[in-house]
Known about the structure:
By secondary structure, the chain is of the alpha/beta class. It is built from 10 helices and 12 strands.
Amino acid sequence: MRKPLTAAVLAPLMLLALGCAPQASSTATDNSSSSTAQTAAECAQGNTLTDGTLTVGTDSPAFDPWFSNNDPTNGKGFESAVAYAVAKQMGFDASAVTWAKVPFNSSYAPGPKKFDFDINQISITPARQKVVDFSDGYYDAAQGVIALKDSPAAQATSVDDLKDLKLGAQTGTTSLTAIRDDIQPSSEPLVFQSTNAAKQALLNGQVDAIVADLPTAFFITAVQIPTATIVGQFQQSGTPEQFGMLFEKGNPLVGCVNQALATMKSDGTLDAIEKKWLSQTVNVPVLQ
């Protein structure tokens, strides 16, 4: 039987542990910062699911402009590029990054995760933060309203103009929350299991318009449904919406990722990635 440690032994051990532990900060989660004495790479050592490998989760299919050609592994698309840039900061080259398929609606469920972090346009919300941890935000999101070009919905110029329309969005998304809380339509919005299902409902005339994050709205209207248009964009009320990388609750890797993101923000890497992959958000009318 192991003998209990005495107070004299415990005290220096506690001081040693405090000296090595990540320091508290005011970021998305309580464990979101690592000691400034460590690099992001040093911080990440021994904190991944598999030693020497970074496992990243995202949904399938993975859509442009977040991922290119439905292939997260190619480093193309905003979120793929961000994931690999974070990995590099933490000492993982591209060959050491593996990807796991994680359905969007299960990513923020409580419990153990099969990934080190998930990157999939997941908005940081207080409800989700109760059961999972988030990195600091890596993208400020706006909502885009999509309608067929020849429909009356395409003529909307304000949020009030949307209230009597039949609207829809993917289940579990902040787009659906934005419809209910910010637009407050006169009829309950239709809820779809995927963005693909929402797009098909728009084409079938089941809804007048659908709501998605603005970059996704651009891809839908430019590539997938060229007969559709972005009616306008709006921000959710209250705190601006941000996408964050998602972790199992209590994961010490959060601080390492935040350190990597801080470096990418300060040296211009994150801004350069956003400009390369998400540069088309100008000239979209704002719905007030």
